């Protein structure tokens, strides 16, 4: 079982049973609102997460993530939650620019 800790959501912990699902799907399964302007299709970067620990536990970059990385749309410590599937424990946070106004964050 993998765990996702969302640091700036007051340390919200999600236990992952199904490793075939994306971070964004796990967020929604656990009633966590997360920005995703394109509907989770990898066509924008609004669902990005800052990966603070465990980048190696998100597998390889998807084709859209590779494209955004090459165009400086994703930093080396960022991934798209709609494209990344956790295979081990990770610690992430929501970037300031994409925080939702109706969600209380802890930073």
Describe the structure.
The chain has 107 residues and is an alpha+beta fold. It has a single domain (2-98), classed as Ubiquitin-like (UB roll), CATH 3.10.20.30. Helices cover 14% and strands 21% of the residues. It is built from two helices and five strands, in the order E-E-H-E-H-E-E. The chain has helices spanning 23-29, 63-70, and strands spanning 2-6, 12-16, 48-53, 78-80, 90-93. Strands 2-1-5-3-4 form a five-stranded mixed beta sheet, covered by helices on one side. Strand 1 and strand 2 (12-16) form a beta hairpin. The chain is globular and about 30 Å long. The chain starts with a strand and ends in a 14-residue tail after the last strand. The mean pLDDT is 96. Residues 1-98 form the 2Fe-2S ferredoxin-type domain. Pfam families: Fer2. This is (2Fe-2S)-binding protein. InterPro entries: 2Fe-2S_ferredoxin-like_sf (IPR036010), 2Fe-2S_ferredoxin-type (IPR001041), Beta-grasp_dom_sf (IPR012675).
Question: What characteristics describe this protein?
Answer:
107 residues; five-stranded mixed sheet; alpha+beta; Ubiquitin-like (UB roll)
Q: How much helix is in the residues?
A: 10-25%
What is the N-to-C order of secondary-structure elements (H for helix, E for strand)?
A: EEHEHEE
- The number of helices is 2
CATH class: Alpha Beta
Decide which structural class fits the backbone.
alpha+beta
Unreliable segments of 5+ consecutive residues: none
- Structurally, the number of domains stands at 1
Please count the beta strands (DSSP E, at least 2 residues each).
5
* Shape label: globular
Looking at the structure, the CATH topology is Ubiquitin-like (UB roll)
Could you give the distance between the termini?
28 Å
What assembly state would you assign to the polypeptide chains in this entry? single chain
CATH architecture: Roll
């Amino acid at each position: 079982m993998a765990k996702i800790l969302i640091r700036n959501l007051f340390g919200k912990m999600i236990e992952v049973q199904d490793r075939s699902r994306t971070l964004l799907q796990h967020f929604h399964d656990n009633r966590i609102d997360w920005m995703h302007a394109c509907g989770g299709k990898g066509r924008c970067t609004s669902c990005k997460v800052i990966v603070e620990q465990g980048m190696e536990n998100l597998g390889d970059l998807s084709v859209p993530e590779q494209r955004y990385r090459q165009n400086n749309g994703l930093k080396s410590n960022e991934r798209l939650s709609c494209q990344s599937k956790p295979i081990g424990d990770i610690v992430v946070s929501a970037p300031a620019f994409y925080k939702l106004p109706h969600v209380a964050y802890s930073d």
